[in-house]
Write the structure tokens for this entry.
Amino acid sequence: AGHLLGEPGPPVDPILRRIAHRHASLGVGPGQYPVVGAHLLAAMGEVLGDAMTPAVHDAWDEAYWLFATALIAEEARVYQRIGADPGHPWRPWRVTARTVATPEVVSFDLVPVGPDPLPGYLAGQYVTVAVDLPGGDRQARQYSLSRAPGTGSLRITVRRVPAVGDAPAGAVSSHLHERVNVGDVLDISPPAGDVTLAPGTTPLLLVSAGIGVTPMIAMLGHIARLRPERTVVAAHADRCPQQHALRSELLDLGALLRDFRLHTWYDPAPEAAATGIAAGEVAARETRHHGLIDVDALPLPDGARAYLCGPLPFMRDVRAGLLARGIPPEHIRYEVFGPDPWAGIPPAR
Ligand SMILES: Cc1cc2nc3c(=O)[nH]c(=O)nc-3n(C[C@H](O)[C@H](O)[C@H](O)COP(=O)(O)OP(=O)(O)OC[C@H]3O[C@@H](n4cnc5c(N)ncnc54)[C@H](O)[C@@H]3O)c2cc1C
Ligand code: HEM
């Protein structure tokens, strides 16, 4: 609303693009906007009570529709580009391999059922997986494609979200871990997502934590195949090497590059550290650190473009560190594995 009133702020186009990709990945279509708009306005009325005068109602209605119109137009472009139909975004995909990456992380290889060709995609994009849960609910979640394009199948890599205290275990990640096996069929929408690898030859900094490694593997795989001369510094933070999903794949892909270095930060739980299981072997192109990630310890090649993926506090710290070291904000892209609460907030300098 502030943007519509001309208040100063960051450009709104990237925000619209992110939402439009997420919506398109979920099959959100123009016919749903009046329903969401009506209920949103009704909910605002319930919360605001008497403060929701007819003038306030009409102003928000107008703001909603200005934004909705812009989103519907952007979504139409995304649907066209990814070749999807908002009425029928889902296609059946068969699981051809199920690989345990770590005790908490499993990868699924997928191929289309029937004659549909494998869709093209860009490194960094994701698909939405929709599953029918045992209680009858249908739930959809995004998963980044964890392999470079051009290999004949798609792969997603899923961390199981555990129950913590009163919070239940994650619905879809648990379902995928516990009930989906080779031969099963999943409903999947075409790849979408706006945080994709910039073409060119500039050096890259790929910074991830935990399951945030998934889009980085796709980007590194793409570079290894098509641009092995591109300098890449990868940095990853995890509890220990054993819980670092796709660690050996990251190193194998890096070995195909002329100039690659992996910086790891492991922060083992005290009991694991005490037994020594956390140490593992330091790989040839790896620089091992301990504790929390320290951006100042990273080599920053001139003109580097940075891609970040991990928990929000992690990305906030890394981003602040990179800005402090002189990387301009437009050269730092990040993927959030949830709604993006930073959208619309001017980047901190
Ligand atoms: C662009 C994008 C890419 C992604 N890529 C990946 C990827 O490559 N790999 C990956 O593993 N994930 C990825 N994710 C995250 C993924 O989409 C899911 O969010 C994740 O798997 C959790 O989904 P879930 O259904 O298992 O958990 P949910 O059921 O959605 O639960 C999420 C959290 O909410 C809590 N919660 C749920 N209900 C309640 C309640 N009633 N009270 C209190 N707390 C509650 C749960 O305890 C849990 O901590 C990505 C997300 C996005 C947006
Ligand atoms: C003007 C109207 C709308 C606005 C401004 C809006 C905005 C947003 C935003 C900001 C997100 C989070 C994006 C991200 O950071 O990844 C989102 C996600 C989503 N939107 Fe909308 N939206 C609108 C209309 C709709 C409509 C009509 C639907 C149809 C049901 C819809 C369904 C969803 C769903 C399912 C998600 C994903 C939620 C999740 O998994 O966390 N939205 N939307």
Remarks:
- Residues 18-19, 22-23, 26, 28, 32-33, 36, 64, 67-68, 71, 339-340, 343 surround protoporphyrin IX containing FE (ligand 2) (CB under 6 Å).
- Residues 54-82 form the longest helix (29 residues).
- The CA atoms of residues 21 and 239 lie 32 Å apart.
- The first strand starts at residue 91 and ends at 102.
